[in-house]
Amino acid sequence: MMALFCQQPQHHHIYRKKQMSLEAIKEEAKRIKTRLIDSFALNTEADYIISGEGLIRLSTVELQEMKAFFSQYFDRFFICGYVREPISYMESDFQQRIKGGLDRFVIHGPQYHNRFEKFDQVFGKEALHLWLFNPKDFMNNCVVQDFCNRLGVEIKPEQVVVSNDGLSFPAVSLLYTARRYGFDYGVGTRMMLANQRMIALLKQLKGPKLRFSGALVDSLWSEHQEDIDWIILRTGFEFKKPTNACRDCSISSEEDLLTINPLVLAEWMGLVRDELAKQKNASAKQKNASAFPVSSVELVWKPHSLSMLFTIARLEKSAGGCYWQVFRKTAARLKRRGWASAYSSLCIEYNLVLNGHVKQLIESR
Asked: Would you list the DSSP string of 276-293?
C-alpha cells in the first residue's frame, strides 16, 4: 500500500533498507494496482479487508488519493484500528525501533491526534472505529482472533501466525548495546536477513519485559498530556498513568540499557556458541554436495553476532580486559581472511570466553 499511495515511497524505511530505487518501487506499485483491479473485477460482490501498518503514516492528501482509488470499486468504508495505552505503546514502540535499527535513547510519543484525526477528516468519524488494545480481553489473548471475531471472519487458532513477539529486557539491553556501539543496521536484503536471525536468537533470552521507570513515565506523560487528552475525548477510553508499583525491571536512562548482567552475557554467548556449532555441522554436510563450505544465508548474520560480543567486550574492559583482547584479535583476523576462513578459530574463541573468562567474572561477582 505504501508503494501505491505514498508520494515519496523511496524514503520509507523498508524501501531504504531494501535499497530499492524509485523506479523499482513504481514497478511494484503497478503490479499491486493491477492485482487489486483484477481481483475487484472478479469479485464484484465481495467485501475486502485492506490491512497494512504503513497506512497510519499516510498523509491526509495520500489518504484522499487512496479513498478516490477504492471509491471506484466500493461504496462504503469501515475503517478500524486498535488504540494502545500511552505508556504501553511507547515501551513497545521503543523496543520495535531498536529492533529496526534505533541507536539512540529517543522515545517517541503515540501521536494519536496526528495519526487518527486525518481518517476522521477523509472518511468521516462515523466510518472510523477505534478499539482498545487490551489482550486480556481478547479471545485467547490474541489480537488476530479478536480482529476477525469483530468483523465476522472465521479463523482457527492454528491459522494464526505469530511473527512479532516482544523481546525480554535482557535481550533488548543486548540489542541496544549492539545498535549503539556496534555495526549499523545496514541496508540490503542480506543485512535485513542478518538482523532477523540475530533477533530470532535473542528471543531465546528469557526475562522480564522492558518497562519505563516511574520518573520516566511521569516525564513522558507530561510531555504528551495534550495528545493523551485528545484520544481520551475522541474514544472515551479511561487511560490512567501507571503507578510505580507495576514498574519492575524499569529503565530511567540509556545507562540502564547499557548495564549488562554477566549472567545474561554468559547465556548469550552460550546461545551464539550453540548456533555456530549448528551452522558448522550444516556447512560440513553442505560441503559434500557443494563447492561452497558455508552458504550465504549462514554467513550474513555473523558480523552482527561478533559486533554484539565485541561491543560488550569494550564495555567490560574494567572487568579485566579479557574479552577485549580476544575479540579484538578475532575481529582483525576476520577482516583479513573473511568470515568463512576464520570460522573454526571463531568457535574456539567463543568457547574460550564462555568456559573461562565469563565463568571467572561470574564467580568474582
From this structure: HHHHHHHHHHHHTT-S-S
Which region among 28-37, 50-59, 177-186 has the lowest average model confidence (pLDDT)? 177-186
Residue 338's CB is within 10 A of a number of other CB atoms, namely: 11
**Cell for 57?**
503514516
Kindly state the helix (H) or strand (E) to which residue 129 belongs, with its residue range. strand 128-132
> How far is residue 230's CA from residue 222's CA, in Å, rounded to a whole number?
14
Q: Tell me how far apart the alpha carbons of residues 350 and 136 are, in angstroms, rounded to a whole number.
A: 42
Cα torsion through 251, 256, 262, 264, rounded to 10: 40
CA distance 322 to 352: 11
For the cut 60, the answer to whether the pLDDT of residue 325 exceeds it is no
- Measured CA distances, 350 to 171, 263, 321, 342 (Å): 19, 15, 15, 12
CB of 199 closer than 8 Å to CB of 236: no
Identity of residue 279: Q
DSSP run (H or E) holding 212? strand 211-212
- Residue 16 within any structural domain of the chain: no
Q: Report the DSSP pairing between strands 211-212 and 250-251.
A: parallel
pTM over cut 0.70:
yes
On whether residue 82 sits in a domain, the answer given is no
**In a domain? residue 231:** no
Q: Determine the Cα–Cα distance for residues 203 and 209; give it in Å rounded to an integer.
A: 12
Host domain of residue 297: 167-208+260-365
Q: At what angle do helices 302-315 and 189-202 cross, to 10 degrees?
A: 60
Residue 77 Cα to chain centre, angstroms: 30
Strand partners, 80: 129
